[in-house]
Design brief:
Structural class: alpha+beta
Bound molecules: adenosine-5'-diphosphate, magnesium ion
Helix content: 25-40%
Order of helices and strands: HEEEEEHEEEHEHEHEEEHEHEEHHEHEHH
Number of helices: 12
Radius of gyration: 21 Å
Strand content: 25-35%
Strand order of the largest sheet: 3-2-1-9-10
Shape: flat
């Protein structure tokens, strides 16, 4: 059934519909969309959302900068659809972008979803992709796609641990024989780190900064542990006492302190998952190591901290932001693999 569903000549898509970023892989062409999951919309009388003004990169630029009549929405929260209509509009936009001139052909679509999603949430994803123009929708668990994308031996009787640190959630999973053996998901990931930086800067520098500036700090100097060499970035914020804009430097040390709580929660989740892992699979993880994926995997020294606490080898996936979509793309190209991992 799956073979016929994914015929050779159609243009099919694999979509990583993430809280922070949406990526699309098209058969034969590879990665064709890689944009923030943000939609800018007109706000009508009574706050009713109207026309879509911008999607993706263009919309993200507007976050925190919109006038009263425009609103920048992130339609996914904690890995699931929070705003159905806006998600649908965003998906349609990215699917059209991915199909290009082939837009007339309704594609068959694979969507990656968090492992512990409810039936209602699953249906929302499928509906959303269908009404955005998909002829057929298949779901695969995100940790599985991430593991495939990271090159782990998912179909073999070997245990692999993958930790996907995204925007809204971090998911820890142990995978073996094409299935997810154990998972744990926590709502501490990139967004929580940005919020922690905002709160820290407010306390330490008496200054208010927005989400975008917080993320900029995290990307430029964010550290999970104090850096061996001092690093810093100059940013602008609004002084709380004077109410005027002010420039100041935030250091890597600052971020290590700001992010300590987020980091320890992620590390705890890994430790907890390891404790529940059957011994044979644990033995494999000692050999294979823990593989980090998602944008959060790139936080400086996070791998060191996890290595120190668990005593296990830790590897950052080659392209952590693209692991999930590349893994799903591989399933699109390999029907046997897809049959094995599809929900
Ligand atoms: P999702 O799958 O939820 O959309 P992603 O895997 O795309 O999330 O990761 C996005 C998150 O990763 C964002 O919070 C972003 O700020 C964060 N991120 C991206 N690059 C880095 C980096 N170099 N260091 C730390 N965090 C990063
Ligand atoms: Mg993700």
């Amino acid at each position: 059934m799956l073979e016929s569903a994914f015929g050779l000549f159609s243009c099919d898509l694999a979509i990583d519909l993430g809280t922070a970023n949406t990526l699309v892989y098209a058969t034969g062409r590879g990665l064709v969309v890689d944009e923030p999951s943000v939609v800018a919309m007109a706000k009508g009388p009574g706050g009713i959302l109207g026309k879509v003004l911008a999607v993706g990169v263009d919309a993200k630029r507007m976050v925190g900068r919109t006038p009263g009549n425009i609103i920048a929405v992130r339609p996914l929260k904690d890995g699931v659809i929070a705003d159905f209509e806006v998600t649908e509009a965003m998906l349609r936009h990215f699917m059209v972008q991915a199909m290009g001139r082939r837009s007339f052909a309704h594609p068959r679509v694979i969507v990656c979803i968090p492992y512990r999603i409810t039936e209602v949430e699953k249906r929302a994803v499928m509906e959303s992709a269908r009404s955005a123009g998909a002829r057929e929708v298949l779901l695969i668990p995100e940790p599985m796609a991430a593991a495939i994308g990271a090159g782990l031996p998912v179909s073999e009787p070997i245990g692999s641990m993958i930790v996907d640190i995204g925007g809204g959630t971090s998911e820890v999973a142990v995978i073996t024989l094409g299935g997810v053996a154990i998972t744990q998901s926590l709502r501490v990931a990139g967004d929580a780190m940005d919020e922690a930086i905002i709160a820290y800067v407010k306390r330490r520098y008496n200054c208010l900064i927005g989400e975008r500036t917080a993320e900029e700090i995290k990307l430029a100097v964010g550290c999970a542990a104090p850096p061996p060499q001092p690093i810093g970035i100059v940013v602008k914020g609004r002084d709380i006492s004077t109410g005027t804009p002010r420039q100041f430097e935030v250091t890597g040390e600052d971020t290590a302190e700001a992010l300590a709580d987020c980091v320890s929660q992620i590390v705890e989740a890994i430790r907890h998952t390891l404790e529940q892992t059957p011994p044979e699979l644990s033995a494999d993880i000692i050999d294979q190591g823990v593989v980090l994926a998602g944008g959060g995997a790139m936080l400086r020294h996070l791998d060191d901290v996890i290595r120190d606490v668990t005593g296990l080898p830790v590897v950052i996936a080659e392209d952590p932001l693209r692991c999930v979509v590349m893994g799903a793309g591989e399933c699109l190209e390999k029907p046997e693999l897809l049959k094995r991992v599809a929900l």
